[in-house]
Design a protein that fits this description.
Layout: H1 2-11, H2 13-37, H3 40-55, H4 64-67
Keywords: Membrane, Transmembrane, Transmembrane helix
Length: about 70
């Protein structure tokens, strides 16, 4: 039951765009902190989080009819 509610909620492009933007902003903050403080682990983590945020965008949705091909 919860899986279906989350699935319907997650398919909305506005929700996916907001979540992706939040994740990218967190990645930018991590990267900036890593550069300013000199902690390259935070810089690397920020780069990875930015990539994850970019992959969460609304263009990444695969509809059921697209999977049949």
């Amino acid at each position: 039951m919860i899986r279906g509610m989350i699935g319907r909620w997650w398919v909305d492009p506005r929700v996916r765009t907001r979540v992706a933007r939040i994740v990218v902003v967190v990645g930018i903050v991590l990267g900036l902190y890593g550069v300013l403080v000199g902690r390259y682990g935070f810089l690397f983590a920020g780069i990875v989080v930015i990539g994850v945020g970019a992959s969460l965008g609304p263009a990444r949705i695969r509809r059921a009819k697209d999977r049949e091909r």
